Amino acid sequence: MADARGDKTQALAEGGQRPLVLKKVRLVVTKGNDEGKEVTLQQPAVALGTLGENDFLLTDPTVSRRHAVVEEKADGYLLRDLGSTNGTFLDGVRIREGYLSPGSIIRLGKTEIAFSRVEERIEALKSASDHFGDLKGESPCMREVFGILERVAPTDVTVLLLGETGTGKELTARAVHKNSRRSARPFVVFDCGAVSPTLIESELFGHEKGAFTDAVKARQGAFEQAKGGTIFLDEIGELSLDLQPKLLRALDQREVRPVGSEKVVAVDVRVVAATNKDLEKEVKAGRFREDLYYRLSVVSIFLPPLRRRKDDIEMIAASLSKGLSADVGKKFSGLAPEAAEALKAYPWPGNVRELKNVLGRAAAMCDGSRIEARDLFLVQKKSNTLDGLSGKTLEEIEKAAIHATLKSAGGNRTAAAKALGIAYSTLYEKMKKYGMKE
After folding, report:
1. Strand, helix or coil for residue 68
2. For a tag site, which of 285, 293, 345, 418 has the least CB within 10 Å?
């Protein structure tokens, strides 16, 4: 396990991907009505029973409608009985839940099923395409990203997106959903850093009427809203330690308990999470649960910063520019050669999000039919920033940055927090610290 973590850390530090390991469950009926039936599935939970919605459908009348489930855990595969009539047996012993070993025999009613696990390790996986959904890029590092996305999107595996603010993690999550078997179902975004800590449990899992002062009626949480589809947990690194066990339970048991309710609600969702934090460091520091980290990082994908794929900048800019004509009410023929070179020379600390904002501003201010280098204001921006920092304390700089960002965001704190690359709760605390009320 330690070696795998080391490989991953090195790969992410270099802006690459770790080897992709696809875990699958193979189930073969060795005795009973469905003898010879076999299935190999690549998903975190495999339901067994006679009800049509089960992943492994059986016809044995002694098997319950929702009989048992095989679940992937950080330390192996767990067989769990779902309150069946005739019980679930593992290697001849009746269990409520128990860990499976290669070759284990599961008995449900009069049906016996052999369990085995399959792992497919892929060292390098590059796509022949220069896009995946709305993501664009011809660079080798992005083709590697596309190759992994093409492989995992059609499955139900949990995906963890890593990378700096503005690298396109939400866009990637939407592309994963669009290319999955759940594409016709809801895609729900939940920003763990943009919700007040006192409301986050209710927003995630829902609440009953009267559960707290403002709960005037029952409300579904994000997990229930995403039923059958995909839930995107953005800024997962901002989730408080007291809520992490509840999220882990939701992921493991595929059920949630609304605030104020004694009943649990079954949820069928695919989970994609994202963070700009190093979760391995957060785990070592005691700020993030190790078991939750491994539950989320079934497949981890690192989105490289724009400065490491400068050959993609012109292609991305051309794609973004297509929508500018409608936004500013005039036609554009594209970028002048000098403008394209200026874009490549800039370090892009805000990544693709900053590029989009710069192009939008340039389109609104330019006089001609194409964007010139002078319209970008990149050099002036850099110079003014450096001059403005001279002689100021770190607190003064931070306060000024927050004030300027809030002003440019029209006072919208959620938008300002995203632009600054911090959680909403962090922005709130800093504003409180500096006595800022705008």
Report:
1. strand
2. 285
